[in-house]
Design a protein that fits this description.
The structure holds two protein chains of two kinds.
Chain A (H helix, E strand, L loop, with lengths): L4 H36 L9 H11 L4 H23 L8 H39 L2 H7 L4 H38 L5 H11 L2 H27 L5 H33 L1
Chain B lengths: L5 E12 L2 E12 L3 E6 L5 H8 L7 E6 L2 E2 L5 H8 L2 E4 L11 H12 L4 H14 L15 H12 L6 E5 L7 H18 L2 E6 L2 H7 L2 E6 L2 E6 L1 H6 L3 H7 L10 H8 L3
Parallel strand pairs in B: 3-8, 3-9, 6-7, 7-8
Antiparallel strand pairs in B: 1-2, 1-4, 4-5, 9-10
Helix pairs in contact in B: 3-4, 3-5, 4-5
The chains are: A mainly alpha, B alpha/beta.
Amino acid sequence: MIPSISEILFGFTGRKTRLFFQNLHDASKLINDTFFWTFIAPFKGAKLRVKTTVSEMVKTGYNSIPIVSVIAFFIGIILAFQAAYQLKKVGALIYVADLVGVSLTRELAPILTAIIVAGRSGSAFAAEIGSMKAAEEVDALVTMGINPVKFLVVPKLVAMMVMLPAITILADLIGILGGFLISVTELGIHPYNYFNQTIHALAMKDIITGLVKALAFSIAITIVGAYQGFKVQGGAEEVGRRTTASVVVSIFLVIVFDLFFTALFYFFT
Amino acid sequence: METAETAIDIKGLVTHYGDVEILKNISIPIPKAKTTVILGGSGCGKSTLLKHLIGLLKPTRGSIIVNKKNITSISEDELNEVRKKMGVLFQGAALLNSMTLSDNVLLPLREHTDLNESTIKIMMRMKLELVGLSGYENYYPSQLSGGMKKRAGIARAMALDPEFLFFDEPSAGLDPVTAAGIDELILKLKKAFRMTIVVVTHELPSVFTIADHVVMLDFGEVIFSGNLDELKASDNKRVKMFLERKPQEEAYSPEDYFRIIAGE
């Protein structure tokens, strides 16, 4: 019997809705498990894998220092030029320092660092967990009575929560240095004036709002990477697909969180 | 042997993947301290059955009683307690590739015991010695051959001296000589430790070497359960076909085939 159009339509809608709620359930279970094993279980005597956490810190944080530094340096230069282009018209060239300092610490350093780390480490998490899932290694952990979230995700999350804010601070500094170098050479601003202007422009809250964002981004990137990894069912092909998805979704979420926090800080600080 | 104690009691197990019924009302006892082989063709549901026995999948209906506990309905914490009594060798050995062999074998010991490092290292060396891999402690899984990986997988499964040992296709992907070596090892383990061993396979030579008890599945149903002599004497058509390696009969006539390829 050929199904009627309404049957096809309802069937399609129903299957998609069920899939959506299944995914939502899986994601919330992962978030729940991750937070439990990271923030609650250690106080109940569960051991943190210190050695693995440190090696994750090296992989996600230390190893991304070169690329983050170069990009932050260039962004600082670009910001200085763009600011000068506008400010020159009104003869307020000294405000280049304010613009570079504030927009880097509040916005650009956290988001650029998060996007680089999402591309480097978020995808690596998805690929690592995904290929472990495909090779039954995750099943092996479960049958040994070892919770895969505790074993695989917690060290990554702790490493990210420490390292992403840390390299964000580094990006702040190097970006400001980039702006500084252009300002004193090309724009003819006196180094001391530039330095003073930056110190005056930056309030502690600018740096802290940037770090709060970095912390939120670190959680989003880790959980998206882990979620996509655990979702792998088949073999190598799906690992690739899920890895790509993890980068796209985590960059999207980074921007959504950025919007949320920027609006929050705009209205409440 | 029919009077042997039951180690795992499977009752009325039904399971689905989506809408497809994979296991259709399976009820079998698995005898204690014997080697039970679950035999069957590809896609008959034998690996699915194994995944239920080790608690990786939950059935639609039915129960699996291990140590008086129904593992299909207990909490994850209780299930983890039962799992400490189980060792599993997966088809691809499933060693953690980021760790050395010694760390792989040490993993369950570190997670589940409070013994000091030197004691668990001795235990680890004993297990590697048992499977003939002494001296390979610092090798990574990727540096080992298929047979060695499986042996290392057995060493890890044995780490906590389990009561139950499960093997998923232990000879898959191995040459006959290496596969025979794994069979020898299974026999040795049974003799030395009197464990309850469950092996899922479709390799007939290993069935006749290691099995005390055979369960044969076909399209999700148990078509035979008994010892080796009974298996050979069975007059079930499907069992005979499997033992004599006869291909499946053509399921459709040439006319039907024509209709299928014409897409009607």
